[in-house]
C-alpha cells in the first residue's frame, strides 16, 4: 500500500485490506493514543509511571524495566518508538488507561474514529494474539494521522538512536533510515506469525510518501520491497498538489469536546480515579506557581475528546481552581528561556521538540509558556544552576537560542 501523504491518495494497492498480524506496528497506535492523552492533559511527558509486574514480564524486544521501577512517560515513548520495547508499550497503556485491557478498548475506539475499519487491537505491544489484526490500508492511515495530528512528536520516528533513562538504545529501523534517500520514519514490526512488517515515510522535495509492507521473509526483503514501493510512490505522485489534512478523530456525539485541563504536580485530593506519580519541579524566584504545562496544545483545530476507560467520568474543568505549590529543594530555582514567539502554539511546539531531545540536563524540568508584551515566552523551570548552563550550552551548540536565569534575575 502506497499513499501520497499530502492528499491521502492511494498510489498503489495490493492486498491492502487483508487482515494480518501487525506485530509491533501496533505501537504506532499505542503512541497515537499516548500523544492524545498528553494533549488532553491526562498525563504529561514528565509523569512518572510505576512499572507493573505485568509490564516488566513482557518478552523481548524490551528495555528491561523492573517491577516497581519509576520511569517517565518521555522515556517510555522513546523506548516504544525507537527500540520497539514491549515492556515500555505495556507500561504506557497502563499509565493512560489503568490496565492493558482498558487501553486496548481505547485503542479500538481510536481506530474506529480514525477510519481504521479493519483493525482490532488486543494489547499495546503487538505480540501475536488471536484477533489482534490490522491491514496495510489501516496502518498507512494511522501513519498519516501521526504525521498530521502530532507533528511535534513525529520526528522521534526518524532517530537512529536515542537516550532512554541514561542508556543508549538503537532504532529497529536504523538500516532502512540510513539506506533510503529521504526516509524519516516510522515503525518496524516482527513476530514469527506476522513476518517482517514496516510502515515507512519518506520525503523528497515537495513530495511525501507513506507505504506499508506486511509479511516479508526477512529484514532485507522487507527493506527492498519498501524501497520499491516508495520509489513507485515518488514516481506517481504529482510535484505540486494542495495538501488536504485528514480530519481529527470522530468519536461521535456521546463523547463531546475535550476540555482544556491544567496539569499540576500535586493536589490535596486527586481529581482522577487513579493517582499518578508526577515529578516535582522548582519555582523560579518571583514567579507565580502557575504551572501551565506547555504540552497541552492550543491549536486552532478542535481538540479530540478525552476518553476514560473503566473509570467514572472526569470532573468538569469549568470553574476549577487548583492551587499548586512547587518544591524549591535541591537548588532547582533556575530557568532557561528559549525566546519569544508570536503565538502560544509556536512556543509550545518548541518546548515539546526540545523536551524530546536527548538532554539529560532538562530531566525533571517543567515547561511553561508566559504571555508577555510582544509575544509568548517559552521557558523551562525547575533547574539547578549547573543544569541551566549545561542545557543552554548544548542548545546554543545547535544554534538554538537559550538564556539562563537564576533566582535573582
Q: Care to give the gist of this entry?
A:
The chain has 409 residues and is an alpha+beta fold.
Read across the widest sheet, the strand sequence of neighbours is 2-1-9-8-7
> Based on DSSP secondary structure assignment, what is the total number of beta strands?
14
Helix coverage percent of residues?
25-40%
Query: Sheet bearing the most strands, described?
Result: 5 strands, antiparallel
The CATH H-level superfamily of the largest domain is DD-peptidase/beta-lactamase superfamily
Our count of domains comes out at: 2
For this structure, what is the CATH class of the largest domain?
Alpha Beta
Principal-axis shape: globular
Tell me the number of helical segments per DSSP (H or I, 4 or more residues long): 11
Order of helices and strands: EEHEHEHHHHHEEHEEEHEEHEEHE
- What's the average pLDDT? 82
Helix/strand-derived category reads alpha+beta
Characterization of this structure:
By secondary structure, the chain is an alpha+beta fold. It has two domains: 2-236, Beta-lactamase (3-Layer(aba) Sandwich), CATH 3.40.710.10; 277-405, Sporulation related repeat (Alpha-Beta Plaits, 2-Layer Sandwich), CATH 3.30.70.1070. The protein is 30% helix and 19% strand. The protein has eleven helices and 14 strands. It has helices spanning 26-39, 53-56, 73-83, 86-97, 100-114, 136-149, 151-154, 174-179, 219-236, 344-355, 385-397, and strands at residues 2-4, 10-12, 47-50, 70-72, 161-164, 167-170, 183-191, 195-204, 207-216, 277-278, 334-341, 366-372, 375-383, 403-405. A five-stranded antiparallel sheet has the order 2-1-9-8-7, sandwiched between helices. It is globular and about 60 Å long. Residues 256-329 have low confidence and may be disordered.
Amino acid at each position: 500500500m502506497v499513499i501520497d501523504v499530502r492528499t491521502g491518495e492511494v498510489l498503489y494497492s495490493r492486498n491492502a485490506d487483508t487482515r494480518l498480524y501487525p506485530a509491533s506496528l501496533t505501537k504506532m497506535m499505542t503512541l497515537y493514543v499516548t500523544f492524545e492523552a498528553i494533549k488532553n492533559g491526562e498525563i504529561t511527558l514528565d509523569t512518572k509511571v510505576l512499572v507493573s509486574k505485568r509490564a516488566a514480564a513482557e518478552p523481548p524486544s524490551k528495555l528491561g524495566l523492573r517491577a516497581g521501577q519509576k520511569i517517565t512517560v518521555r522515556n517510555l515513548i522513546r523506548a516504544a518508538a525507537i527500540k520497539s520495547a514491549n515492556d515500555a508499550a505495556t507500561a504506557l497503556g497502563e499509565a493512560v488507561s489503568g490496565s492493558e485491557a482498558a487501553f486496548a478498548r481505547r485503542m479500538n475506539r481510536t481506530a474506529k474514529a480514525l477510519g481504521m475499519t479493519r483493525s482490532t487491537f488486543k494489547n499495546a505491544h503487538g505480540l501475536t494474539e488471536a484477533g489482534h489484526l490490522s491491514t496495510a490500508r489501516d496502518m498507512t492511515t494511522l501513519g498519516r494521522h501521526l504525521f498530521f495530528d502530532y507533528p511535534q512528536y513525529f520526528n522521534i520516528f526518524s532517530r537512529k538512536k536515542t537516550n532512554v533513562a541514561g542508556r543508549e538504545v538503537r532504532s529497529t529501523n536504523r538500516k532502512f533510515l540510513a539506506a533510503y534517500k529521504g526516509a524519516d520514519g516510522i515503525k518496524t514490526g516482527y513476530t514469527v506469525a506476522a513476518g517482517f512488517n514496516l510502515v515507512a515515510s519518506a520525503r523528497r522535495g515537495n513530495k511525501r510518501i507513506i507505504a506499508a509492507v506486511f509479511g516479508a521473509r526477512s529484514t532485507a526483503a522487507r527493506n527492498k520491497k519498501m524501497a520499491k514501493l516508495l520509489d513507485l510512490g515518488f514516481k506517481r505522485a504529482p510535484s505540486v498538489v494542495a495538501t488536504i489534512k485528514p480530519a481529527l478523530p470522530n468519536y461521535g456525539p456521546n463523547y463531546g469536546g475535550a476540555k482544556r485541563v491544567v496539569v499540576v504536580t500535586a493536589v490535596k485530593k486527586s481529581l482522577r480515579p487513579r493517582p499518578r506519580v508526577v515529578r516535582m519541579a522548582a519555582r523560579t524566584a518571583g514567579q507565580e506557581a502557575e504551572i501551565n504545562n506547555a504540552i497541552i496544545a492550543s491549536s486552532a483545530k478542535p481538540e479530540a475528546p478525552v476518553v476514560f476507560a473503566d473509570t467514572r467520568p472526569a470532573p468538569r474543568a469549568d470553574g476549577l481552581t487548583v492551587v499548586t505549590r512547587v518544591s524549591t529543594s535541591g537548588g532547582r530555582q533556575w530557568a532557561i528561556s528559549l525566546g519569544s514567539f508570536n503565538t502560544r502554539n509556536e512556543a509550545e511546539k518548541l518546548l515539546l521538540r526540545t523536551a524530546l531531545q536527548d538532554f539529560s540536563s532538562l530531566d525533571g524540568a517543567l515547561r511553561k509558556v508566559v504571555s508577555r508584551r510582544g509575544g509568548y515566552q517559552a521557558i523551562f523551570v525547575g533547574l539547578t544552576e549547573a543544569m541551566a548552563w549545561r542545557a543552554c550550552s548544548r542548545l546554543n551548540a545547535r544554534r538554538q537560542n537559550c538564556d539562563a536565569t537564576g533566582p535573582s534575575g
